[in-house]
Every structure is written in C-alpha cells, then in structure tokens.
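Amino acid chain:
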Amino acid sequence: MDTEHKNNCLVCGSELVYHSTAEPMDCLYCKKTFPSNVGCSQGHYICDACHSMGAFEVIKEFGVASDSTDPMQMAKTLMHHPSVKMHGPEHHYLVPAVLLVAYYNKKGNFKKKKRKLKEAFKRAGQVLGGFCGFHGSCGAGVGTGIFISLITDSTPLSTDGWRMSNLMTSQSLASIAERGGPRCCKRTSFLAIRKAIRFLKENFDISLNAGEPVRCEFFPLNKECLKNDCPFYPKAENPMLPEGICSH
C-alpha cells in the first residue's frame, strides 16, 4: 500500500476523474466550493490553496471549517494531507487542534473555537521537533496538555486548570511511553488523542465521538514501525477499542 500518493488522489490514491466541463466540488479541508474539471473517483477534492498550504495552516483552516466531533477521524484526514509528513512537529499542533475542534463543536461555540485554534497554533509552534527523544516529552502528549490548558483558560497562576493540564500531559505521556520507542508520530498522536477523549469524559463529563477502532494507514512510510506491537497496526491482535481503552 502506497500512502504517500504522488499520482492520482492525494488522499486515497484512487483514480482521478476528469470532466469536460467544470463542476462544483467541496474541498475536503477548507470546505469551500470551487468549480473544477478534476476530482477523485471516491469524491475527494483538494483546492489549489489547501494543496499548497503548509501543515500548520492546513490544520488551522481545516479546524475552523470543520463541524466534526470525532477527533480521531479528523486526525486521520489531516494526516493524509501532503504537507503532513510521516514524522514532524506538525503533529504537535494537530493533536490539540482536533481536540479543540471536537470540543467546541460539541459545545456549539464556534467563535471561541477559532480563537483557541489560533492560540494553540502559537503554543504548539514552541514544541520543537524531536522533543520526544531529546526532551523526554513527546510533543503529541504535550499537545493534550495544551488542549486542556486552553479549555480551562489556565495560566501559571491557575489552580485547577494548572493541575488538570499537567495531569492530562502526564497521562498521555505515560500511555505513549508504555508502548515504547522508536518514534512514530502517527502512533503517539493516536494514543494521545484517545487518552484525551477518556480524560474529558472522566473529568469534564463530555463525550466526544471516538468512531471505530483505529487502523493505521501510514505504516508503509515508517521504516521503524513496531508492526504487531502497535495497537493501530492493521494486523495487530490488540486494536484500540472505540471507547479509548486498550484491550491488553
């Protein structure tokens, strides 16, 4: 399976369909409608602006436009964008972004969602690439702490928000560390998001959609893939359950 599609559809690799006249198509990322003569046979379409946009900008614009409450599905969709590589610091923003989008869409507060996405953009940009190995704190796990700090309006002088933000990060990092290395930005992002979904339910009584068990579609691009030792590997015996509880 070739997930880094250089030809055909950049999202799923399916054949492109060409039309003699332009037809209205909705961009998968910004949700805007454009006239186009070409689209994917499976219905995917990426506008020129989103196609050429950098990863952080794509994630932010996607989040502003999305009405989804399923952070895992949003993460997978964004991971298919050509600007989001197999590994990289863009995942440090992707994790808090999809959680913020799902959270504020669930609450119906779209103005606050946009404002919080911009702030998460700034904070995640300070979490450098290689944080997992060089600082002992995976950026995906830190991203969940950024998420909680934003929804609780936490500052260094806060009481409960400070506690909850650090508790969230610690639980995400523990979940990531238990799986061991080497790095995999897809595995750690999925683990962090799952942990945050459960944390929200237990501490805020907010249920986000978790969808079906996650099956990784990106493992062919990762030469360090843990394969059957990863709960998201397609052939793994212990997939991650929908409610975010690992079956081991």
User: Anything to note?
Assistant: Residues 1-6, 239-248 have pLDDT under 50 and may be disordered.
